[in-house]
Design a protein that fits this description.
This protein has a domain at 96-150 and 187-296: Rossmann fold, CATH 3.40.50.300. Helix content is 57%, strand content 14%. It has helices at 3-12, 25-45, 47-95, 99-106, 113-124, 138-149, 196-202, 208-217, 234-250, 263-281, 292-296, and strands at 127-132, 151-157, 180-186, 191-195, 220-224, 255-259, 282-287. Strands 4-5-6-1-7 form a 5-stranded parallel sheet, sandwiched between helices. A two-stranded antiparallel sheet has the order 2-3. Helix 9 links the parallel strand 5 (220-224) and strand 6. Helix 3 packs antiparallel against helix 4, helix 5 runs parallel beside helix 6 (138-149) and helix 8 (208-217) runs parallel beside helix 9 (234-250).
């Protein structure tokens, strides 16, 4: 029954058909059709009152619709909050993040120089190189950054017509209404976390080309602990690393690199060419501060 029909019945003291009181669904349908005709006849005979009630009915229907939308949005928020830690942990494990770093990201992150730099990088993209001593939160910040960018988004609408699916052509609300939201879901296919040593070792293993191909093409990439790979691999390693950085820059793929080296040590180990390319393509941040590991201890 429409809100208008309910208001007319309320004003006239009519009994509204009820499925509970009907002897069968068929009888209920007949009673409802008869009631609707009765309402229409009344509206024709009383156009002034009908116009007033239609306005009230429209306002009341809108109010109730907004309440239902608010309930659905709250249910969505509650469900997302309840599942967020589990989904984040699964995502980080799937992209190659180790258990210790994963648990740190899922837990309460401490604001560090590295984390502030990564937060800005998630907005600007490009290449970010985090340098500095151990325990300054570089690896944790990098993993967190991948969780911010490794997502798939799509539109949803929570009006009565769309009911949480994609907006339909006959959607009851327009663009910009609060019922329209941009849904985000962590997508492991869009992110990859590699230890530099594992990348270097892949150069000398059968099938290692597939790992490097993945590192080139994945949307967002983290290379952790650059500088810990074996120095005897540097001949090919430096050439491949340089090419990887260049390829990802050309494809506009966000890339984050962490290293325990100081800026001077980084240049000494990898040369001015790679350091310059990273500076030209992105940002280098020297992470300083007390070791989080010492503080935890």
């Amino acid at each position: 029954m429409t809100e208008f029909g309910r208001l007319v019945a309320e004003r006239m003291g009519w009994t509204v058909p009820s499925l509970d009181s009907a002897s069968s669904i068929l009888d209920f349908m007949r009673e409802s059709a008869a009631f609707q005709r009765k309402v229409e006849d009344w509206a024709k005979a009383n156009p002034g009152e009908a116009s007033e009630l239609r306005q009230r009915a429209a306002e009341e229907a809108t109010r109730k619709h907004e309440e239902r939308i608010a309930e659905r949005l709250q249910e969505r928020a509650d469900a997302r909050a309840a599942s967020a830690p589990r989904k984040l942990a699964a995502f980080l494990s799937a992209i190659g993040v180790g258990d210790v770093t994963r648990d740190a990201v899922v837990g309460s992150l401490e604001e560090t120089v590295a984390l502030r730099a990564v937060k800005e990088w998630t907005k600007t993209g490009g290449i970010l190189l985090l340098l500095g001593s151990k325990g300054t939160g570089k690896t944790t910040a990098a993993a967190w950054g991948l969780s911010m960018l490794g997502v798939t988004t799509w539109p949803r609408c929570f009006c009565d017509r769309c009911c949480g699916g994609g907006p339909r052509e006959d959607c009851l609300v327009g663009a910009g209404h609060r019922a329209r939201v941009s849904e985000e879901e962590l997508n492991p296919a869009k992110a990859r976390f590699f230890k530099a040593g594992h990348l270097a070792a892949a150069l000398h293993r059968p099938g290692g080309e597939a790992i490097w191909d993945e590192a080139r093409k994945v949307y967002v990439l983290a290379i952790d602990d650059l500088g810990r790979e074996y120095s005897d691999q540097h001949g090919r390693w430096l050439a491949e690393l340089d090419l990887l950085i260049d390829d990802r820059h050309e494809m506009r793929r966000p890339t984050i690199i962490t290293s325990n080296l100081s800026p001077k040590e980084f240049i000494e180990r990898y040369g001015e060419r790679i350091a310059d390319r990273i500076r030209q393509m992105g940002l280098v941040v020297n992470c300083v501060g007390e070791s989080l590991r010492r503080k935890a201890g």
